[in-house]
Structures are given as structure tokens and as C-alpha cells.
Amino acid sequence: MKIGFFTSIEGWGGSETYLLTLMKGIRKAGHVPVLFGIEGTRLFRDARDVEIECVAWKRISQGEEVASVGTGDTPHLNPLPQVERKGGAPGRILRELKKATLFLIPGWLKLLVGNAREVLTLRRVFARHRVDVMHVSNSGYEVAGIACKLCNIPSLVMNMITPPPEPNRVRRWLMKNTLRGYGHISSQSRNCTEAWIRFADLQPKRCSFVWNGVDLSRFMEGGQRLRRVDDPFKVVSLGRLHPMKGYRYLIEAVRMINDPRLKVDIYGEGEEEKVLQSLIRDLGIEGQVFLRGYIENPEEVLREADCFVLPAVSHESCPAVVPEAMACCLPVITSDFGPLPEININGETGIVTLARDVATLADAIRTLMKDPALCDAMGRLGRSRVVACFTVDQMVAKLIGMYQKLGALSNGGEQ
């Protein structure tokens, strides 16, 4: 099969790592992946570097913008043709009149026009580069499914986050109705899929979930840990520095524990960096909590840690870093937000705490600090759980089955 993978995200993070891993796995299984992405992004470059066919529907390197709704932000509309900067005052007046006209257009109308433009753009791109099935990576809502329908391409949407709170009624309507247009709706956890079913009133038989897969060749068991109770206890967390990750609660928990043996390294970049750095400074724990920035190879720091913590409070579907930490035999502490208790089994592979609750998070860290044997036992169970449920091969095999079913249905089968 020739399988397309569409994304409208311009940055680099878990969703993009997931797509690159998935496309490599699809090719290894004997199928042909094609990335429909944004030229100038790291994902586009990395996919080309490993000789995956890439089709650009947008080029940020040249400043070309079409309506992009992948993040739920207001679409970037194609700019109107520029008036020649000649003619003195009449030319300036005309330009100002056009600006005023655009300002007067209601936001909901701009949103719909932007989405219509994107559909037409994608329809042209998809028609020129035919695939058997399209996998659409969704981080809010996408209109790629409409373009697929217009081109008679069966499509699967993979929801990378739980339904975000959306106060704008038009956007909320778009989120629901674009989602209903896909041949199959999936996500990376049962909880996330059920949340989208409730949000968009979807038919459960058209929905599924496939857990994020871990490359076990990268995330291997760490060396034998001989930590004693009085040794330093090293906590690691990885992820975008964004309020959704709940890092402020981890920082406050360190202050509550007030134990100099505890050291916390947080790896990642994002808009909350200055806020978190100020909080660390205000709490006087600069010698215990460190914002280490972006890291290319997380497996290296995971294998050297004693525990992994992710106190997320929103958005998560199946953050790959949790099973990655488990694959390195680390006990994990997560919040109880959404799908996290599906991955981290409380009392077995780690400890599940209350989201936004500093006290329960502090208690969980103290529990593991004082019991090295418990850390080891949870780490071993975590590794076994990853091998049983969270490998890349399992993820790829399940998705290929869905693609094949979609392809068969488009050729005359019934849903």
C-alpha cells in the first residue's frame, strides 16, 4: 500500500517524533509512506534524510501561508495581492481601505474562508500525489479529511490530544464536523478516544485507539541500580515547557519535601521556561531543580535516573516518554489526568497522583526515595508492560490493519 501521512504542525515534538517513527515502521513492513507536510520543518527534513517521499503543501521557508488549523489557532489566511506601491496618496488610501475592509469582516467568516482555501489547496495536492489511504495527524481539528473525500481517498484521523476546551462556537462546530467526515477515528489511548466520542457524538464502531510505540532498541534496560536509602535520588522529566505538563506542581513538591538528597532535571523547551525558572528561584531550590533544555537522545538521561515524573494536567493522549521511561526500568509517577493511569498502573509500574495536587505528588516521591527495592520492582514490571503493550512493531501492525480495512471498504465493502 501507498500510505499518506498528513500534518499541519510546524514545530518539533512528540507528534512529529511519532510520525517519523511510524513512517519508518510502515516502510520496514513493506509499504510505501508519503509525508504530506510543511517544507522547512525539521520533520520534513528528517523524513527526506531517511529517503521517505515528501510532498509539501505549505512552505514556511518561503513565507507561503495557507490556512492552517492544526493547532486550533486562528488560520493564517493567504495575503491579498499587494497593490503596487506607486501612485502616492491614492495608492496609500486604497491600501488603507482594504485593511479596513478586512478588519470589518467577522472572525467566523475569516475562519470559514480560511478553511475553504485549505481544502482547495489540499485537494489539488492530494489529486496530484495519489495514495491508497491517508493518515491525518490531528492536534485540534483538521480539514484534510474533507479534501480526502473530494479526492476519494479513504482517510484515518489520529487524534494526538484530548479535545481541547474551545469557547468559539464556529471552531467547535468545525472540530466536530470535520472529525465526523473521516472513515475511521483513532487516538493513542482508550480515554482519549472516549473523550472524542463524547465531544463529537461519534459512532463507537468507527473509533479505536492504538498506543504509542516504543523503540526497544533505543530504550533498553538501564544498569543495575545499587542506590541506598541515604544516596541522592535523581528524578527526571521530559516534555515541552507548557502549563499542560504541570511542571509547577513538581517544582512545588520539591520545596515541600525539603530534602537535599532530591535532585530534579527537567528537559525541554517552551513558553513556560521563564515562569518556571522564576518559581525555582522564588522557592530557593536552584540547587535541586534544573531546567536542562532540549535533549536529542532522552534514553541517555533516563537510564541514569532513579525515577521519572510527569504531572500533566491537560491535553495528553499517550505521551511516548512515559512508556520510554518504563522501558528503561524506571518507576514512574504520573498524575491521574485522562489516559495516564492506562499507561502507568498505580501500585505496579509506579504511582498515580491527583492532578494539580502538590501534596500527593510529594508523598509519591518520598515513597520511592525511601524504598529502593520498591523502585526496582516497579521498574521491572514497567519494562514487562512495555514489551507486552507498547512496542513500535505492535503499533505499526495495528495501524496497517486499519489502513487495509479502510482500503477494502473504499473498494465496495461496508463499515
What does this structure look like?
The chain is α/β, with parallel strands linked by helices and 415 residues long. The chain contains 15 helices and 13 strands. The strands form two sheets. A seven-stranded parallel β-sheet has the order 3-2-1-4-5-6-7, with helices on both faces. The chain has a six-stranded parallel β-sheet with strand order 10-9-8-11-12-13, with helices on both faces.
How are strands sequenced across the largest beta sheet? 3-2-1-4-5-6-7
CATH architecture of the largest domain: 3-Layer(aba) Sandwich
**Main beta sheet, described?**
7 strands, parallel
Give the overall silhouette. globular
Helix content: 40-55%
CATH topology call of the largest domain: Rossmann fold
Set out the fold topology.
Elements: E1 2-6, H1 14-28, E2 32-39, H2 42-49, E3 53-59, H3 89-104, H4 107-128, E4 133-138, H5 144-150, E5 155-159, H6 169-180, E6 184-187, H7 190-200, E7 207-209, E8 233-238, H8 247-257, E9 262-267, H9 273-282, E10 289-293, H10 298-302, E11 307-310, H11 321-327, E12 332-335, H12 340-343, E13 350-353, H13 358-369, H14 372-389, H15 392-410
Parallel strand pairs: 1-2, 1-4, 2-3, 4-5, 5-6, 6-7, 8-9, 8-11, 9-10, 11-12, 12-13
Question: Which features would summarize this protein structure in a list?
Answer:
2 domains, 7-stranded parallel β-sheet, 16% strand, 415 residues, Rossmann fold, 6-stranded parallel β-sheet, 15 helices
